[in-house]
Hints:
- 50% of the residues lie in helices and 20% in strands.
- It is of the alpha+beta class.
- A hairpin with a 2-residue loop joins strand 14 (501-510) and strand 15.
- Helix 2 (15-80) packs antiparallel against helix 8 (293-336) and helix 8 runs parallel beside helix 9.
- The two termini are 40 Å apart.
Amino acid sequence: MRSWFHTRFPPLHSIVVQLFLFFFFGMTLPVLIGGFISYHKSSMIVEEQVSKVAALTIVQVSDKLNMFFKKLDDSSMMVLNSKIVHNILEQRQGDNAYETTLKVKDGKDMLTSIMINSPEILDIYIFDTKGKNSVLSADSLMSIPNQWDSDWYKAILKANGNTVWFGLSETSYLKRTGMGFPVFGLGRAIRSWETGEVIGVMFVEVMGNVLIDELNRVQFGDTGYVYIVNEQNQYFYHPNPDEYGKTSKLPLPARKMQLREGKRNTLMIPERLNNDWLVVGVVPLEELTADSSSIRNLTVLIALCSIVLAIGMGYYVTRRIGNPLVYLSRLMRKGEAGDLTIRSRSVGRNEIGQLGRSFNKMIEQIELLVERIAKEESEKKKAEIRALRYQINPHFLYNTLNSIRWLAKLNRTNDVDKAVTSLVQLLEVSMGRNGVFIQLGEELDLLQKYMVIQGYRYDNAITLLMDCPDELKQIPIPRMLLQPIVENAVFHGIAPKDEPGTIQIRARQEGEEIIISIADDGVGMSEERLAQIFAEEGPHHNRGMTNIGLRHVHQTIRLYYGNEYGVSVTSELMQGTEVTITFTTLRGDHDVQSAVG
């Protein structure tokens, strides 16, 4: 059951599944993300543009209303500043009745001319605050009920001369009867030019059809609308006539804002009129983005087509690329298990075929490499055996024992003990009983013991100085790595000049590299001799205790740490010689052996 499942549905780590998913998601996700961003961005752009158009429309409506209201306000100012009106309202007791009649007639004529110039005005009424006189136009004073106790009359007096606007109403403010069409009005108090007291009240009643027809033409979408409210948030105009004069349930907006109205989100765009009223446009946001639905439908269609195309291309790619790679992966696992006889049959001209040919060539190279590593390992073991065989120089051993004999004859028993102890320790280390590697600190201790023996021979004419940080003394290095170089410094550097000399050893770390320098102040070497040290051909003198010299130290470093490391020498005649050993802390004997294995 499990094998059938994995056959029908390969695991996710399979390259076939990964290639299919890569093509599937690689083609569908950009389309989906791009479509979503495009739809979202287009909706925002459409909403912003429609919002700007709506705001511009509201501004145009407010400009028209301001012009309309200003015209009415200018007409009221003509009445307010009329000398005829003031003479009628301020006539004194005892004035001639004939003259009073003429004044009233002139006043009616003036009001009639104003109404002729403004046909939207139904009537202009001027009431004497004392109730004595009234000036009217196009109607009979007797048909007007008493207005001195009405709300609009008191509101005009309270305004102290400012214009007071009254909203749309199906009932006449003055006649208190239905008009059959909406009306609205404005009123102002008339003050005496001499005393400044209120001597009359003017009320202008205006037909609202002109205003309503203009506002009804403004519509946003299918359900958007415009309304006008005063400072108390009472409707001056609303598409529904039943709302005239009622307090709005919507908040009084100070700036453009979004509002949840019922089950829809709306955008409220306010614009303040010169009379401090607000024209507010209510725009449903759903209708703003209705034009972007075509983009959404196109995005969905493209996404579906991309999914189908991605499935087809994914299947094709897995057949043409995935399956050959799976076959090659199986061959690699066999090769990893040790079967070097396998070969790939996919050797076509495309990259998969090139990979198959490279795989075949790699297997062949691995076979050759295994043979070569085995041969190099054999040569390495032979070299180690050779080195162990010739590590002890009989001449050095003879001179050391002869020096000890003379010390014994002179009864210098302490010196004999120190010399013999140092010699025993050197012989033990040279035999390598504890492995190939030794800590750098132990190697430096052995050098000091070696210089103890050389001190008896040269009457302590050679000084050994060491500079090594404590943290570097724990680093493992190949056994007897520094002793051949110090021995060369003694015998070939300082001894020939027949003067006291100094050998200085410094160890330091730079990054992952360890650098050890051995410098002497001996006779130095010529450039020709310096060039022969690491030459492949040339004489190799058997001098020194280890009989391996600089060349062997250089080969040892490269064997254990790699060809990029080794020994370098600088020297000047009669100035001295400096030998620098460079290796790394990242490799050692265990790496070489694991590579061979």
